[in-house]
Structure prediction request, 287 residues.
Amino acid sequence: MRIVHTINEIRQSVLGKKQQNARVGLVPTMGALHAGHGSLVEAAVEECDFVVVSIFVNPTQFGPSEDFEKYPRTLDTDAAYCEQLGADIIFAPSADQMYPAEQLTWVDTEKLTEVLCGQSRPGHFRGVTTVCAKLFNIVQPDLAYFGQKDAQQAIVIQRMVKDLNMPLEIHICPIVREDDGLAMSSRNKYLSADQRKQALCLYKALTECQSQVAAGQRQVALLIDAMKQVIQQHQGQIDYISIVDPQTLDSLEQIKQKALVLVAVNIGKTRLIDNLSIDLNTPANPI
Ligand code: AMP
Prediction:
């Protein structure tokens, strides 16, 4: 497995493979890889002939008071992990490679980015869509892999690809959790032992919601109240708890068929997110 740092190198490698009709998969990440990322790489290795993992802590998706500087950077262990999973190449560009001059052109998906994390993190999704558009143009993958963990991001990227006729398919992979249910996240590294216990409130709130829905509760306000209680019992600072239409992200009052339940909670200074998909037409799986 190779590690390359420049746009020229990754383009040359992919071009060579494309000339041999290889199906190219891209897994965009910010590194500090864990088994959640690993599941995306595994899916790509299974479905593609040539798998690119990009590792880039993208400055334009962080707000001025967010954790860009302290975000964990662990390229050596990330590379070993990707190699073990069967990835073919890591593209780990510098910020200067990706943003050599002042960026005057941005990709902005409207409406879907104005709610939930978009409301709490102004400019975040503009940074995400812009860097993904750049990565798609640089790597030109046939398939790109994203996690359901970042549900709003997955919806926004799918919409960007559709609206801009980008010639690739987006695959969304299920959330990978720790044994006790905490969704894996690079930011879990920030948690102290006590905070790690508190952090379980996101998962507990979602499972509470799931069991109330299974018992027949359909009123969103009551479901949100129940989740709020679980999170407050653990001293989590709620950023938002929302139950929305999974396509439009519009808030629901009642669950009629499909719904996406999303939570964002600050545990100390660490902002964690998690979500649950509901479909009343299919039996609920334990999350
Ligand atoms: P990040 O490095 O946080 O930007 O994440 C890179 C990709 O990995 C995104 O598509 C995430 O949704 C996905 N991802 C992160 N955590 C998980 C998880 N626990 N399960 C599945 N996918 C994940």
